[in-house]
Design a protein that fits this description.
It contains nine helices and no strands. It folds into two domains: 116 residues, RNA polymerase sigma factor, region 2, helix turn helix motif (Rna Polymerase Sigma Factor, Chain: A); 68 residues, Arc Repressor Mutant, subunit A, CATH 1.10.10.10. It starts with 24 loop residues before the first helix and ends with a helix. It is mostly helical.
Length: 231
C-alpha cells in the first residue's frame, strides 16, 4: 500500500527550497539564479570537453586514423549538414555537399593546425565555403540557361521550328522581339513559339512561302544582333 511522504511543512527543520512553499520571492529568485549558474557551468564544461575531443579526433584523423574519423564524422556531420542546409535550403543538395565536405576534411585534415583556431571553426569554414561554391555554380548554370541559344538556323528548311530551339529569359526576349517589325515578329513567334513550319505559317498568313522565309531569316538576324549572339 502506497503512503504519502510527509510534506515539507511537516518537517520544521527542513531547509527552505524552491518547492517548499514557504520561500520568499527573493529566495526563490536566488535559487533560480543558482540553478541557472550551475547548468551554465555544466554546459560550458561539456562544450569545452567536446571541443577538446573534436580537436583530438581531427589531429588523429590527420594521421590516417579511420577510427578517429568515424567518431569525428558522427560528431560533426549534423553540424556540417545544418550549416549547409541554412545556405542551400534544398535538402538533397545539402546532403550531397555535406558528404563532399566530410570527404575533404578526411583528405585535408593534415593541413589543420590548432594555431589556426578551433577545429570546429576550421571544419565549419570548409562547409560554408563549399556551400557558397555550390550556390555560385548553381547560379552560373541558371544564367547560361537563361541566355538565348540560336542553333544553326537554316533558312531554306520547312521544319525550321523543329530544328532550332530558343531558350530565353522572358524579359530579354520581349525586349529583343520588340525591335523586330510586326511582320518579322509574327513570323518568328509562329515558328519558335507556335511550333509551326514555314509552310504552315505561309498558309496561315496567306503569303508566299518565300516571304515567310525572308521574314524569319531577317527576324533571326535582327535577334542575333540585339542579343549579341554570334551567327
Amino acid at each position: 500500500m502506497l503512503t504519502h511522504s510527509p510534506s515539507v511543512e511537516a518537517r520544521p527543520n527542513a531547509p527552505a527550497t524552491l518547492f517548499s512553499g514557504n520561500t520568499s520571492l527573493a529566495e526563490t529568485q536566488t535559487e533560480v539564479n543558482r540553478i541557472r549558474e550551475t547548468f551554465a557551468r555544466w554546459q560550458a564544461e561539456l562544450v569545452s570537453e567536446a571541443i577538446g575531443e573534436i580537436e583530438d579526433l581531427l589531429v588523429r584523423t590527420a594521421t590516417g586514423s579511420k577510427e578517429a574519423f568515424s567518431s569525428l564524422y558522427d560528431l560533426m556531420a549534423p553540424r556540417v549538414l545544418g550549416l549547409i542546409r541554412r545556405v542551400l535550403v534544398d535538402q538533397a543538395q545539402s546532403e550531397e555537399v555535406a558528404q563532399e565536405v566530410l570527404l575533404e576534411i578526411w583528405q585535408t585534415a593534415a593541413s589543420y593546425s590548432p594555431s589556426k583556431g578551433k577545429a570546429t571553426t576550421w571544419m565549419l569554414t570548409v562547409a560554408h565555403r563549399r556551400a557558397i561554391d555550390r550556390v555560385r555554380a548553381s547560379q552560373a548554370s541558371k544564367d547560361r540557361d537563361l541566355k538565348i541559344g540560336v542553333r544553326d538556323f537554316e533558312g531554306e528548311r520547312d521544319d525550321v521550328a523543329e530544328s532550332a530551339e530558343i531558350s530565353i529569359e522572358h524579359k530579354r526576349a520581349q525586349q529583343a522581339l520588340s525591335k523586330l517589325s510586326d511582320q518579322q515578329r509574327e513570323a518568328v513567334t509562329l515558328a519558335y513559339y507556335g511550333g509551326l513550319t514555314q509552310s504552315e505559317i505561309a498558309e496561315r498568313l496567306e503569303v508566299p512561302l518565300g516571304t515567310v522565309k525572308t521574314r524569319i531569316r531577317d527576324g533571326m538576324n535582327r535577334l542575333r544582333r540585339e542579343l549579341g549572339v554570334e551567327s
